[in-house]
Design a protein that fits this description.
332 residues, mainly alpha, two-stranded antiparallel sheet, 76% helix
Length: 332
């Protein structure tokens, strides 16, 4: 039971980080729209993600479905508390998807659909940041019936996480455009990434220093003398990746900024998981307590072993087949 529950916690964690990385950069590209006035440049930006954007969101569906099946107690406990930001995220992604399709054919209304695409990307990211901040801060389950719990996701730390995630996704998007574009558009993205990397560093420091003081248990884990030599690897790796990013931007390397920014996201994500472990509802419900019965976990695991390899291969193949520079507008 413990092994199955841990395996499913790992599978869900993997699905979430896949979504953060893959959908993160195309949400970032959507939030970059106000930085560009040329419709031709916006068409090229859209064309870089046109073949893959809907596949990226598959990982969000996978993570949500896996959480519902493997840890139903977590799903039923967290969803009522986070209903509003999750609902906002879904609506934003819906409008973003509609705008994505409609702007391809729009002429007079293109400005409207551009605005919907930007706003959908922005609000989806802000909602994800609020959920992340609420999860790291922890939940108060004692007030779940008096309405207070409905606003646990709105606090200073969660807002800081939202702003940090906005800058992080825009940085991912800008770095992705560096790989996929040429000429003036690529030069502008190098300039944007150069500025954003410092904002990313500032918010990374703020969130990293703030999170241990949200809960005594988190502080004890990170500042325990026995743990510090091992946990210090994560901030060290983050600094290494940020240095690599700075070097890549300064020397106009195309691939290094994107992969080093992914490295920063992964190290931060691992840090958040270490802070929360073994809880799936922080400070209340562990992954063992929340797990479905053994037969359900085993049945789902067989399905995951069958379906995950094709999903991973599809993701790999779609990026392989559509690799290379985008120099002209794509369409259906």
């Amino acid at each position: 039971m413990d092994i199955l529950a841990l395996a499913w916690a790992g599978i869900i964690a993997f699905g979430i980080i896949m979504y953060i990385i893959l959908d993160g950069f195309d949400l970032g590209i959507g939030m970059l729209f106000p930085f560009f006035r040329s419709e031709h440049e916006k068409d090229l930006m859209i064309s870089t993600i046109l073949p893959v954007w809907d596949g990226n969101e598959t990982w969000l569906v996978f993570g949500g479905a896996a959480l519902y099946g493997a840890f139903p107690l977590v799903f039923s406990t967290i969803l009522p508390i986070l209903y509003l930001p999750i609902f906002l995220m879904v609506i934003a992604l819906l409008f973003r998807g509609v705008a994505f399709e409609f702007r391809l054919k729009a002429i007079k209304s293109k400005f409207f659909w551009n605005s919907c695409f930007f706003m959908g990307s922005l609000f989806a990211t802000l909602a994800q940041g609020l959920v992340l901040g609420a999860f790291v801060k922890g939940f108060d389950l004692s007030c779940c019936h008096d309405g207070v719990s409905n606003y646990q996701w709105f606090n200073a730390f969660a807002v800081s996480c939202s702003v940090a995630l906005v800058f992080g996704y825009i940085l991912l998007g800008s770095n992705r455009l560096i790989i996929k574009t040429v000429g003036d558009l690529q030069k502008k993205c190098f300039a944007i990434s150069n500025k954003l990397q410092y904002l990313m560093l500032i918010f990374l420091i703020i969130v990293s220093l703030w999170s241990p003081y949200l809960d005594p248990a988190i502080k004890q884990r990170w500042f325990n003398p026995h743990n510090m030599p091992y946990l210090a690897i994560l901030p060290f790796l983050s600094l290494v990746f940020l240095t690599m990013h700075w070097y890549g931007i300064k020397n106009k390397k195309e691939y290094l900024p994107f992969w080093s920014s992914i490295g920063v996201f992964v190290t931060c994500y691992i840090g958040f998981m270490i802070s929360a472990y073994p809880y799936m509802v922080p400070r209340h419900i562990t992954y063992i307590e929340a797990a479905a019965d053994r037969s359900s976990l085993l049945f789902m695991l067989v399905g995951a072993c069958i379906m995950l390899p094709p999903l991973l291969y599809y993701t790999y193949y779609s990026y392989k087949i559509f690799k290379g520079k985008v120099t002209e507008k794509l369409g259906y």
